[in-house]
Amino acid sequence: MKLSESPFLQSPRTVAWRRWTFNVHLWLALLLGPVLAVVCLTGSIVVFRYELNRLTVPGTAYVTPRGERLTLDELTARIRAVRPADQLSSVSWDGGPATGMNFWTNSPEGHRIQTFIDPYSGAITGQEDYHGKWMQWFYELHAKLLLGDTGMFLNGFVGLTALIMSVSGLIVWWPGLPRWRFGFSFLRDARWQRQNYDWHKLIGFYSSAAVFFIAFTGMYFSFPGIYKSVIRAVAGGEITTSPRALTAWNASTVRLEEFVQRAMQAQPGTRFVSLAFPKKPGDPVSIRTKEVRDWHRIGLNWVYLEPGTGAVIRSARFSDANRASQAALLMYPLHFGRFGGRWGTVAFYGVMVAYLVAGLSPVALTVTGLLMYWSRSLSKTLGRPRKAAAARIPLEV
Fold first, then answer.
1. Is 113 helix (H, G, I), strand (E, B) or coil?
2. Whole-prediction pTM value?
3. What is the set of domains in the chain, with CATH numbers?
């Protein structure tokens, strides 16, 4: 039998396994569809979290460049003067010379504090407490379902649901070769039920590949061990990780600016983006850098240094990394749509808008799908008792 004569290709509704696929698609949508919609809706917002965060702190994120910036040691001293009880976590300058430096500290109450400082004058331009911040709440809901690490693990199964529904939806959508045009039709003058059905099938078809891809990359954060094992097997190499430091941070006499200078020497042609302070014994000083045409908004390159001596332990530059390490590093920007800047500003925001639309499509599919279930099944089931009761009422003579 020729492939074109396959019962599924010709008349899919007569094939038993297609009916089974429809039931899987239906019940996954009913049981987990609303959760998936919430995760995708919050994910669409999170795509623009950096831009939205800057809007919430007007006048603090941007500065006017004026010659050479102050050293990190001078800036850190000013941060300690205004937040003496806080523990330093990191300092980032990811926006470039025209933006303020952002010092992240942890308060004694366990709150994450952002303190913005003008790197040229040393003036504190603003502070934010991330405890209870609405954008952080959206991120926690998207990534962890507000359940911490347990929620992040469970979220992997929400992503798996998206994968299954993307594939099963295409199978259910297929109308057969004789009626293939029906799969792309939309009746403008039809009743709302038919228009709702047309919206569901069209949105599902055109968004299926994007939803599958975003869900697949998102599952990496829930099941990193499984993904890294597969990546190593497929790419044939080890994934670069943070090395262990041999010296102690509390015994360091190295200036912070010296750490940055040594990182720049290890990775010439890059720009300093952030410095992460060691959090526990064995942690190195981690400096992130960005290349001119980097795949990620804040770079995918790292330099790890000994806290006590400032010696470079490892330079992990994305362009020099093996395929396994590159694949693992790309999961974050590919999932959140933060890689378009490699091709310019228009592409940068164009990719983010595309991710926004792709993230909203499961929300639309959930709404249209539930309306289909209501009109085809639930409304009729709920209407039967009323019809039966009406039948028992005697007619007036």
1. strand
2. 0.89
3. 1-54+142-221+343-388 (no CATH), 57-132 (3.10.450)
